[in-house]
Amino acid sequence: MSRLSADAVVIGGGAAGMLCSAVAAERGLDVILLEPNKILGRKLRITGKGRCNVTNNCDIKEFLSNIPGDGRFLYSALNRLSPRDTMELFENLGLPLKTERGNRVFPVSDNANDVAGTLQRYMNRSGVRVVHSTAKHIVTEDNAVTGVETSDGLIKCRAAVICTGGLSYPLTGSKGAGYIMAEELGHTVTPRRPSLVPLESDDEYCAEMQGFSLRNVELSAYENGKLIFRELGEMLFTHFGVSGPLVLSASSHMRNFGQARYELSIDLKPGLDEKKLDARLLRDFEKYANRDFANSLGDLAGRVMIPVLVKLSGIPGETKVNSITRAQRHELLRLFKNFPVSVSGPRPVDEAIVTSGGVSTKEINPRTMESKLCSGLYFAGEVMDLDAYTGGFNLQIAWSTAYVAANSI
Question: Do the beta carbons of residue 371 and residue 187 sit within 8 Å?
Answer without folding.
Answer: yes
